[in-house]
Amino acid sequence: MSSPQEKTSAMNQAPDSVTLNGVTIDDTFAEAFPMKATRVLITAHNETWARHAAVAMTGFATSVIACGCEAGIERMLGADETPDGRPGASVLLFAMSGKELAKQLERRVGQCVLTCPTTAIYAGLDEGEAIALGRNLRFFGDGWQISKMIDGRRYWRVPVMDGEFVAQETTALVKAVGGGNLLLLARDTDAALAGAEAAVEAMRAVRGAIMPFPGGVVRSGSKVGSKYPALMASTNDAFCPALAPLARRSELDADTRCVMEIVIDGLTEADVSAAMRAGIAAIVARGAAAGVTRISAGNYGGKLGPFHFHLHKLIGEGAA
Amino acid sequence: MSATRGWNLRLKAQPDFRVDFGSVQPTALAGMTADEVARLQVRHGNGMLALGELFDIGALRGGAEAGAGTSSAADSAAEVRAEPRPELFLEGDLSRFDAIGQGLDGGVLRIAGAVGDRLGLSMRAGAIHVQGTAGQLAGCEMAGGLIEVAGDVGDFAAGALPGSMDGMRGGTLVIRGKAGACCADRMRRGTVLIHGDAGDFLASRMVAGTVALAGRAGAHCGYSMRRGTLVFAGPAPAVPPTFVATHQDIVVFWTLLRRSLAYHGGPFAALPARAPRRLVGDLAADGKGEWLVPY
Asked: Which residues of B touch A44 (CB under 8 A)?
């Protein structure tokens, strides 16, 4: 298990950083912001086709900066967990506004789920503001669509070439939290990737949270603003090894040659906390010998979002 | 002693004329004293009569009345959804009492005995449990809530009043006995489950909704049916020439519907997982109604 906590004070480390199993955990926090989110359940004839639909629907949904939404597969579902008794996938979508979320949901379900063989789609949340799921997609049926109320829920049955596409009329929109993050500082690329993969795997076990970037990991962490006025974000120079000797302020020492970031969106603040805690625990369990020597987090001085996930508080709660 | 949660009305003797019981609502009576309940006037033939002259009146206290309902575990779940308090428990042969639960908007009516016509007419919420039979127009134009009849029901159950365009508009009607003619005529929304046989013209002129039948259907089933679903859980019916088979995979919809119907137990609890045959019609009308027929 992890070694006793010890306080360190070394170059390029915050004065009150904590070391667990050789991994330094900065005394800093991840700064997150409010988002709107929904959960939908996709089912299909078998898990393969459910996954195809879910992967397509969550494609090009890494960042709201240019994708319109952030989305990911929360987890795959067994046949006993879905409304129609078939295998499925639980998908979470996050956007900066309810209007944008509704737009993205309709587009993605229409182009990626309606089109995918054998699929059906259902609301994954009961409470919240109703937004259209099958309500508008039903018009694809060109008048042949059928509405059905079952146990107070309206479903649409749209004739398609493999039978019929069943979609619940609405799903629920809820307030959520986006932008939780961990920065993994490693001695090289192999170590950084292995650590990030282990952390993401542990974080995927947390319900209500997704890591929207490819494989759950982002290498192009950003800071707010740019020297170019047209850009709202640019490379996080403080964590770029190439800029360690050049940038005005670097967070890296000479032994840190690769940094990976894991971004987390969650339905609640607690979900983001749980995912971050799981990620930290996975890195700490591997120990500094595995190559990830330090964990930090990105924030903007508390000016961007109201949700602050303090790393030391998270590991304290994990130990409690 | 626990607080009063409703009233127990035991019939003293059969009334001389038919009684219109539509003004007696469990929610309205819940706030009354026994004297006030006894003085409540109901129409009796051409005149009015006080409830106290028709019934012995007592308070219901504590938990659910033992033996008052016909509920299974599944029905209890439906009852919870229907907000079961406050309650009115009627005892006796009430076959001369019409419009029991008319316009019901909450609470529970339990009747240990038969009831007259127009049971739950236009009710919107709440639950009605009848241990005996019901007359004509049971659940007629109901828009919500649950009606459960342990015995048979007369003609035009879940149907429309004369001159009205729409029959049942929501809620659930469970008939554990047989249904008379024209059941679900002009039905627009909601669910009807018939554990026994159904008379002629079942689901005639149906606009939408779901009817599930465990017994045999009479003649002219689905006559002029425009939309809606008719599930045959028992014997396969004779298929009229204005209904045609479709052959697509409907297992997703069937699973959703089958699981919902299974709540009501009996023959609906064991509907096969395999999707049934699907026929659509009535082609003489809109042709978008469907029959789900076992193989």
From this structure: none
CB B291 within 8 A of CB B237: yes
Q: Do B252 and A43 touch (CB under 8 A)?
A: yes
Task: Compute the average pLDDT of residues A200-226.
Answer: 96
Q: Length of chain A in residues, anyone?
A: 320
> How does pLDDT run across A53-64, given as a tens digit for each residue?
999 999 999 999
- Looking at residue B68, its pLDDT comes to 40
CATH number of the structural domain B70-293: 2.160.20.60
Q: Which of B209, B210, B252 lies closest to A84 in CB terms?
A: B252
Is the pLDDT reported for residue B2 higher than 70? no
Give just the sign of the alpha carbon dihedral B284, B168, B171, B116: negative
Query: Directed axis angle between helix A269-286 and helix A311-319, to 10°?
Result: 80
User: Which of 3.30.70.520, 3.40.50.150, 3.30.360.10, 3.40.50.970 would CATH assign to domain A6-33+177-319?
Assistant: 3.30.70.520
For chain B, give the percent of residues with pLDDT over 90. 84
How many alpha carbons fall within 13 Å on the CB side of residue A138? 20
CA-nearest residue of chain A to B78?
A: A151
User: What ipTM was estimated for this complex?
Assistant: 0.88
User: Average pLDDT, stretch A194-223?
Assistant: 97
